[in-house]
């Protein structure tokens, strides 16, 4: 048979792929038996960030079981590094994933803020909580503070951030100890956030953009990976496996978008090959920016403004084709229940980040009235939106276990997440300090966590859709800020277009 010029007769793999894609475009019954409430999920997805706050909490803090923590961060180095976010279920502040989280929250607002309704203000606050910290971390020229806390001593304890007595060692990069990866991502975060605040707070926006320019210049001039300079502190936790080149392109791409300066356009074109823009085109996360770079820059091409970026669009098209279910690609797999799965820990970070790019590119294509050619078939904007929606619905409960992987959403969700503050009694219910090893009994307890970290999305099920709701299984049960950040944009869109 043939559809739209696609000849399938005698080609079983291609026929299977076509039927799979056709099914995606048909109305699907919900496994959980009801339509998803994307408004509620969006509200909770953003609320999660308040549970990850470090520092002195504001009067409008909504997750009331959290209290002030880490109020002396930076003191050992003579600087103020209070604030910011704990990245996951521990009590360390890692600058690399925090900056990526900030960039993705900002991108969510830039592309989907008009769909956020009353949650827009809370999302902007979430961005500012991060950028206020990043401004502190980059206040000294030629120095960026990239981590607060010793990960090994922290991971040796199970204690509330409010009780924290582990080492709060401050780690920095400088001219002699470069870190173009974390500096490039920090520049991207500041530049992206400057767009968010351009009309809301012009003075703050200018401060963010000017700082982004300075940080990027430092990243580019003193090249090197921060995991070489700070290996014992950042590895294996947020070790840069992919190299720093992609962060330089990523930073330049956001500075170009934020400033429209010709110098950044020329930098991107001049360094495209040197910085390997075409590498691993279907990877996107805190360590690998390649797919994000190609999608972000491709908007310029699709809008008819930048033919000199055509190769980035070709890479973005290749990324899209590699994600189509039923079309074999060694780096992208799907679980039997239909979840994107990549090897390594915390799979949901790949699910939300790649789905965000699918949706963003779908919108760019739709406005340009374009499709993506994929060999003998093609991908329309509608198909990309449906692919992204199926991933979001899986997270929210349309999956073989009928379980929402967002805490507090739906009738059934993870109860024993790998998260210190959530799993230990709150200061309100247990005012006495709980020491480093005294928390172990809560970690090992089979009981549900006493504090609901509303909106937290965990690492998720394995490649066969099985999920152990157990704290020791941290790769499956630990939430992270960089899982939630791209999901904010996805939920905003589907709350307005469901």
UniProtKB/TrEMBL annotation:
<feature type="active site">
    <location>
        <position position="469"/>
    </location>
</feature>
<keyword id="KW-0624">Polysaccharide degradation</keyword>
<keyword id="KW-0136">Cellulose degradation</keyword>
<feature type="signal peptide">
    <location>
        <begin position="1"/>
        <end position="33"/>
    </location>
</feature>
<dbReference type="InterPro" id="IPR018221">
    <property type="entry name" value="Glyco_hydro_9_His_AS"/>
</dbReference>
<comment type="similarity">
    <text>Belongs to the glycosyl hydrolase 9 (cellulase E) family.</text>
</comment>
<keyword id="KW-0119">Carbohydrate metabolism</keyword>
<dbReference type="InterPro" id="IPR008928">
    <property type="entry name" value="6-hairpin_glycosidase_sf"/>
</dbReference>
<keyword id="KW-0732">Signal</keyword>
<feature type="active site">
    <location>
        <position position="478"/>
    </location>
</feature>
<feature type="domain" description="Glycoside hydrolase family 9">
    <location>
        <begin position="38"/>
        <end position="491"/>
    </location>
</feature>
<dbReference type="GO" id="GO:0008810">
    <property type="term" value="F:cellulase activity"/>
</dbReference>
<feature type="active site">
    <location>
        <position position="418"/>
    </location>
</feature>
<dbReference type="Pfam" id="PF00759">
    <property type="entry name" value="Glyco_hydro_9"/>
</dbReference>
<dbReference type="InterPro" id="IPR001701">
    <property type="entry name" value="Glyco_hydro_9"/>
</dbReference>
<dbReference type="InterPro" id="IPR033126">
    <property type="entry name" value="Glyco_hydro_9_Asp/Glu_AS"/>
</dbReference>
<keyword id="KW-0378">Hydrolase</keyword>
<dbReference type="GO" id="GO:0030245">
    <property type="term" value="P:cellulose catabolic process"/>
</dbReference>
<dbReference type="InterPro" id="IPR012341">
    <property type="entry name" value="6hp_glycosidase-like_sf"/>
</dbReference>
<protein>
    <recommendedName>
        <fullName>Endoglucanase</fullName>
        <ecNumber>3.2.1.4</ecNumber>
    </recommendedName>
</protein>
<keyword id="KW-0326">Glycosidase</keyword>
